[in-house]
Amino acid sequence: MKHFFSILFLILLLFSCKKHDSNQNVIHIKVDDTKKVNFSAIFNEYEFIFPESRDSAWIGLLIRKMEKINGKIFLYNLTSVGSNVLCFDTKGKFLFNIDRLGNGPKEYTLLKDFMIDKQLNMLVLDVIGNQYGSNEYMYFDLDGKYLYSKRRQDIIGSTSSMLEYDENLYVANVYCAQIDNCNDIIFLDRQNLDVIKSFNYVDKFTGEHTPSQSLCKTSNSLLYYGGNDTIYTLSIENNANLTTYFVDFGFQKQKYFKSITDKSHDEILTLARNSFQNKTRRTVNHLFSNNKYLAINYSENKIVDTKNNLCYQTVFYDKETNNSYNTNNINFDIFNFVKNERMEIIGCSDGFFYAILNCPFTKDEIAKIIESTFLSDETRQSFLKMDEESNPIIFVFK
Fold first, then answer.
1. What residue spans define the domains of the chain?
2. pTM to 2 decimals?
């Protein structure tokens, strides 16, 4: 019987990997049963940024994205009343925010995403605005000053991820929850915002969950995470998308994929919700990469009694050794922690991963951190000053 289930899992795995193309070199990323390892053994450079805490600098419910340029860190900040962009320097000093929620000129009713246009040295906000309507880009300089707005070609759906593709193009993932099989990758002309090319993902698996950051640039490629736990390499030059990685969340996840075949959108959402509550499904939130690691940040439900407890984990896939490391199996020796389920990767810049460490820490945790031999005296003092009113910590490492 054990061999039967092993063979069945292998068949399902091969089906999922080969479903989209005939590429034979798909890399299998293992999520569970990864090696136990000390954090300091795989990452040897790290620092902590303690963002200044005050009303206008308040980090709300969730940080969906981080961009860095010219010594400034920009955060897409989801709050209880909307979303904005916060800007800090690399020491944590608050510089300004962009919060133009409203119905007047130069304001938006919804901020969907943002990116930095490094060619123009500008911030580009994808919004539902008031000048051009549902598809509008608002441009700001790097000091947060509004410059102008542009109409984007009307495309059904909301942007879940956007970034620079090259010196001439932007690329965005557009998703529409109300329409089956609406999950497009679009390439936009930087100047006129015309759609140059688009890919449509018609796989039901892709439509049931779109990560908040589904696109990721590496040194030589553009990666896209599909809702079927497949990571594709995308290129405007190719008409086909090459399956590069398969993220193996285990047999239960494959069983879930099989259960939603030929189901309607509403039925898929119900099954997705139930499987998440039953701990048989995880959902990927962010995808980031440096030269050594591909980082896949996901959320899962850890049930305590009858309560749902959302926690974050990250799988680091080592491109050189093909080893995978999961944060639930990493000893965070630099903190003196065994585990840390509150760390969420939010960005990658200059080879460094940026993560949010959600607060507050307990008194016991603070005591352990203070005793760590890895931290400087200045960092220890910063941890000691933290309380329930403090912003989350930005943890930088590679």
1. 27-64+282-398
2. 0.85
